[in-house]
From TrEMBL:
Domain HTH lysR-type: 3-60
Domain of life: Bacteria
Residues of the signal peptide: none
InterPro entries: HTH-type_LysR_regulators, LysR_HTH_N, LysR_subst-bd, WH-like_DNA-bd_sf, WH_DNA-bd_sf
Lineage: Bacteria, Bacillati, Actinomycetota, Actinomycetes, Kitasatosporales
Protein family per UniProt: Belongs to the LysR transcriptional regulatory family.
Keywords annotated in UniProt: DNA-binding, Transcription, Transcription regulation
Organism this protein belongs to: Streptomyces malaysiense
Cellular-component GO terms for this entry: cytosol
GO molecular function, one term: DNA binding
Protein name: Transcriptional regulator CynR
Length: 302
């Protein structure tokens, strides 16, 4: 039997679902056909790839090794197909972008508008998720680019600094501090109730580290997985939150409250896979990002 790409996809589908029936449904083929194709693949390779003895079908050791290379081969083929269809004049193209939540609130909109205005033929897919998920997704070729924070990244990724982001405490206008000009001592947060992003987000880890360093344990009354939810909560309650200055400036119903000492800044970065093919769409978007952060005067923009 000649080995075909469908055999790789069939094996990976069974491994993902752990079940022939569900894998066959996902692949839109019959379960007997799927089982027969996998057996033919095993005969061709001369080894057993799946352990069918338990309640869940699992890869054998040989199957794990083969599946690892099969995933890599399919990723490379997908990249090759994108390269073939990439149009250098940008009359068409596709870009898969992943961002952490703070950037959805103040950066994704302007970037999308600029990209669409210059290159309306480019299709943009935006995924909001955690930094960890962005990095694993880039390595798995699920995303072309990511906007997150600079730090220690997974091997195989590159990060280009874009600008410095500043965070501050924020309340609703109805909770304004009556003309306070002095910064709020961080110890006073012990008496405050906060609404913050959930712990799986990089911003929350940044805030928690700051509070721990200063020995402060405020009550976390609300946890949310979106910036929009936090701004809505703070505008309508007595709760405070922590947001980037760029978001606060765009919300007239929010009031920044400087902290002493101030929250440490962090560097925003454009992430990509080191060995990835850079499509014309990805290169154009990269140029637009750098131009926009300079035009908007974000701190320390390169």
């Amino acid at each position: 039997m000649a080995l075909e790409l469908r055999h790789l996809r069939y094996l990976l589908a069974v491994a993902e679902h752990g079940n022939f029936t569900r894998a066959a449904e996902d692949l839109h083929i019959s379960q007997p056909t799927l089982s027969q194709q996998i057996k033919q693949l095993e005969r061709t390779l001369g080894t057993q790839l799946l352990d069918r003895t338990g309640r869940t079908v699992r890869l054998t050791d040989a199957g794990e090794a083969y599946a690892h290379h099969a995933r890599g081969a399919l990723h490379q083929l997908a990249a090759a197909e994108r390269a073939v269809h990439d149009v250098r004049d940008l009359t068409r193209g596709r870009l898969r972008l992943a961002v952490t939540p703070t950037f959805t609130a103040y950066l994704v909109g302007p970037l999308t508008a600029e990209l669409h205005g210059r290159h309306p033929g480019i299709s943009l897919t935006v995924r909001e998720t955690t930094q960890d998920r962005i990095e694993t997704g880039l390595l798995a070729d699920e995303f072309d680019l990511g906007i997150a924070f600079r730090g220690t990244h997974l091997p195989g990724l590159t990060g280009t600094a874009l600008f410095t982001e500043t965070l501050t405490l924020v309340t609703g206008n109805h909770r304004a501090t009556g003309g306070r000009s002095a910064a709020l001592p961080v110890r006073d947060l012990a008496d405050r109730q906060l609404a913050l992003l959930s712990p799986d987000f990089a911003t929350r880890g940044h805030i928690d580290g700051y509070l721990e360093r200063h020995g402060v344990s405020p009550r976390i009354a609300v946890e949310a997985n979106s910036i929009q939810a936090l701004t809505e909560v703070v505008q309508r309650t007595s709760l405070a939150t922590v947001l980037p200055d760029a978001i606060t400036h765009d919300h007239p119903r929010l009031t920044p409250v400087p902290l002493d000492p101030a929250l440490p800044t962090r560097t925003v970065a454009l992430l990509g896979r080191a060995d990835a093919y850079r499509s014309a769409a990805a290169l154009a978007f990269t140029r637009i990002v750098h131009e926009l952060v300079r035009a908007r005067g974000y701190a320390d923009a390169p």
